[in-house]
Structure formats: C-alpha cells, structure tokens
C-alpha cells in the first residue's frame, strides 16, 4: 500500500513538474520583477502597493496570461517543436493535448473571475492582453517582425497594466506626471531589450523554422544582417535611455550606473558574432541579459522614489 502511495505521489509530482515546464515557470520571477517595477514607479510606496488589491490582482492576472500564452503556443507548435524543442511536455507525452486544453480553460476561467473584481478601465486592459495572446500563435506569429514587435510590446505593456493599478490618478494626470514619464522610459527600455531577445531566439530556431517553412527575420535577411539589426536595437536603446534620463536629470554622474549596464550586453552580442551564432552562446547571452535589466529596473524605481512632482 505504501509503495502504491509513493508511486501515486511521484506521478503527481511528475505531472506538476511537467505543467510548470509547459507554462515556463522559469519566467515567473522576471515577469514579477517587471510588474512590481511598473507598480512601484507610478506609486513609489511599498505600503501602498503591497496592500493594494488591484495591484496584487493585476500581477496574478499577468502571470496567468503569460502561462496561458505558453500553453497555447505549445499546442499550435506541436509539430514544429518536434524539431526545435523535442523536450517540451507535449512532445514527450508527459502532458496530453486534452490536458493542455483543460489547463487553458482553467486559466482563462480564473482570469475572468479575478478580472470581474477589477475597475472597468483595468478590465479593458485585461481583455486586450488576453485577446492578443490568444491570436498570437495562430495569426501574428506567422508574420515576420510583427510577431517580434508584438511579443516585445506585450512584455512592456505589462508594466503599464501594473502601474495603472496602483495609481488611478494617472488617467487624469498622464501628460504631466513625472512618475508616468519614468514609467514610459522604462517601458521603452524593456521593449527594445525584449525585441532584441526575440530576434536572438529566432536565430536559435532558424534551422527548425526553415524545415517547417516558417518565415522569420533571420531567414529573410540572414544571420549576419539580423545580428546587425540586433546590434542597432541595442545601441538605439542606449541612446534613447541617455536622452530620456537627460530630460529628468541633467547630471552625468547619475546616468553612469544605468548606462554602464549596457557594457556586458555589448560584449555578449559581439561574442555571438565571434562564435558564428552558436546556440549555446546565444542562450548564455539571453540569461545574462537579466542582470542589466534588474539594474535598470531598480535604478528607475529609486529614481521615481526620489523625484519631486
């Protein structure tokens, strides 16, 4: 009997692990970092945001929408993943297609329940995000560059969603609120960084995408030109951040920390070129990008906390 119980527990644990892998639970912490930053930048008070129901609710909804998108993506890409990602749970059989559909339905149901308790303006944002994620894989993902821009926009949009949940007054003061200006600068940084990462992922998947007749930017213009585009995005991000910070603080010393965070990213990008676009180097670059992003988000939170309206 004990052996049966142990076997049953192992099965449950294995299933839970597969669900976490299917929903890309590894992305939960970076997502929370973004949403927390969005909330704190617009309302820099830990007491106010940590005890704010809309803030907590929008954070949970964002994580659920992200997880829903991952599951939907794997359902539609099951044939492609046999080449590009053979270790995915739907490919290995650890999660069945029916189980994936049940999981999707459960997530959407939970999102709908939580969304019902939010103010109407936030409900609109929830519906936009959920609709966009739903049509991404079957429609937008097939359009080169559009799919990359959409992914990057969704990631940066999550900060706005969270930010508006902590400061409803932004709707009236949006054009001259300095906290909102800092949020926009941060969102732009996240957008360019995410777009760069999306193109790097496309370079990783180029062989599998070719076999499945999927058109991406690296397939259209080649790896070398894609690398130039990625490099351009990185330097554009650096330039935009420099000028944006200058509009808030005309002090070079204050800008040293965020701008110096670009140095390791620039080095990693050139390592990719030197390695002839080796997948392991690209994977390492994507992981390393978390450090500079954390520095920038922390910096923007501190900047918002100390700024005078």
UniProtKB/TrEMBL annotation:
Keyword Membrane: yes
InterPro entries associated with the record: Prenyltransferase_related, UbiA_prenyltransferase, UbiA_sf
Identification of the protein by name: UbiA prenyltransferase family protein
Predominant location: membrane
Protein keywords: Membrane, Transmembrane, Transmembrane helix
Location of this chain's protein in the cell: Membrane
Signal sequence, start to end: none
Positions in coiled-coil regions: none
Segments crossing the lipid bilayer: 21-41, 53-76, 97-116, 122-140, 227-246, 290-307
GO cellular component terms, semicolon-separated: membrane
Family annotation (Gene3D superfamilies): UbiA prenyltransferase (1.10.357.140)
GO MF assignments: transferase activity, transferring alkyl or aryl (other than methyl) groups
Topology of the protein relative to the lipid bilayer: Multi-pass membrane protein
């Amino acid at each position: 009997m004990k052996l049966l119980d142990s076997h049953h527990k192992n099965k449950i644990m294995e299933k839970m692990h597969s669900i976490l892998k299917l929903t890309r639970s590894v992305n939960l912490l970076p997502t929370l970092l973004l949403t927390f930053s969005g909330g704190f930048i617009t309302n820099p008070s830990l007491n106010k945001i940590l005890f704010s129901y809309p803030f907590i609710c929008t954070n949970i909804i964002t994580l659920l929408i992200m997880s829903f998108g991952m599951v939907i993506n794997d359902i539609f890409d099951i044939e492609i993943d046999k080449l590009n990602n053979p270790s995915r749970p739907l490919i290995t059989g650890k999660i069945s297609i029916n189980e994936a559909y049940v999981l999707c339905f459960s997530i959407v149901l939970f999102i709908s329940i939580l969304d019902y308790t939010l103010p109407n303006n936030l409900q609109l944002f929830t519906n936009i995000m959920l609709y966009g994620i739903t049509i991404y894989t079957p429609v937008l993902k097939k359009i080169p560059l559009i799919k990359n821009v959409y992914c990057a926009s969704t990631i940066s949009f999550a900060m706005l969603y969270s930010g508006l949940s902590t400061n409803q007054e932004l709707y009236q003061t949006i054009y001259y609120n300095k906290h909102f200006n800092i949020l926009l600068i941060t969102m732009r940084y996240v957008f360019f960084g995410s777009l760069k990462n999306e193109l790097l992922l496309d370079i990783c998947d180029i062989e599998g995408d070719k076999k499945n007749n999927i058109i991406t930017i690296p397939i259209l213009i080649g790896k070398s030109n894609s690398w130039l585009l990625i490099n351009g995005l990185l330097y554009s991000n650096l330039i935009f951040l420099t000028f944006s910070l200058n509009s808030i603080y005309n002090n070079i010393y204050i800008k040293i920390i965020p701008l110096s965070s670009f140095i390791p990213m620039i080095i990693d990008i050139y390592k990719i070129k030197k390695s002839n676009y080796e997948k392991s180097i690209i994977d390492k670059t994507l992981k390393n990008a978390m450090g500079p992003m954390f520095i920038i988000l922390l910096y923007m939170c501190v900047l918002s906390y100390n700024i005078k309206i």
